[in-house]
Amino acid sequence: MHVIYRSHRLGDADRIADLTALAMPRDAISADWFTHTILLDPNFDPDGLIVATGDDDEVLGFVYAVRAGRGIGPDPDGGWITIGCVHPDARRHGIGTELLNRAKAFLSAKGAKWVNYAAYPLAYFVPGLDAEAYPDAARLFERNGFGRQYTAAAMSIDLADYAMPDDVRELRATRLAEGYRFGPATRDDLPETLTFAAQRLAPDWGEAVRDSVLQHGRIDRVLVARHPDGQMVGFATYGAYRGLRERFGPYGVDESCRGTGLGKVLLHDTLTRMRAEGAQSAWFLWTGEESPAGHLYLRSGFHITRRFDVLRADLDQDVPL
Known about the structure:
Blueprint: E1 4-6, H1 12-23, H2 31-39, E2 49-53, E3 59-67, E4 78-86, H3 95-109, E5 114-117, H4 135-143, E6 147-158, H5 166-177, E7 181-184, H6 190-201, H7 205-216, E8 222-226, E9 232-238, E10 248-253, H8 262-276, E11 281-284, H9 292-299, E12 303-314
Parallel strand pairs: 4-5
Antiparallel strand pairs: 1-2, 2-3, 3-4, 5-12, 6-11, 6-12, 7-8, 8-9, 9-10
Helix pairs in contact: 1-2, 5-8, 6-7
């Protein structure tokens, strides 16, 4: 099989989206989603979008690699592969290995010392590899030097019959009596919310809230919790990613206030608002199954829907492009 490897060119978005429906059906993407997440990525480099084509220019596979840059936070040495696949009829011809090697060489030439799949803070499709859904891909990554860093659990809860539990209502009333405040953010809350999310919880969460409000205008979908002294100690949001109302998060409580039940109150306040908007479920892609947040979700009625392995490989700084 004769294969040509090239960078992004006009017409690729639709054809790559069509390919994902065949090659990765549980995670197929639309051309619009591809455009928003890759082509409009502030760190996009066309040479990092590597496309494998046949003699008739049929897209046989692709991979997207991106170097650290704007909005990444504390990972200046990193690189990411966020998505990639090979047409089912073109597998076992070395295309997947060549795409990975070219992606690693691209990132190495840009100065990256390691590469993650996926977990790109600015825009990922899924947080890692679902090895159960894609065992061939799992073997491909393993053969090419990737090891598992940790596993992210995706969870969901049915909201059709949801009602805030009585014990949460009582806890909420107790915290309100103590002077804590919970409620939707106002316009004036937004600067502090962005700072709190980015500096106290995760570097990219402030950007997620900012982008959500700018794109969708739903300030009321951002909820905040304040200490009796007025300081913000937690926030939650939904519909932040692609405007999907039923997608929950990001969400978190300041470490100094964990164990007080504030996170439980904020979680159920958010689910209550989602249900009031007509959401039939709430779901998210990423938490540590054994983390305090993971345990809280499970105790609150969420169940695990998928598991994603976040993979990493060191990069050879001498690999040529």
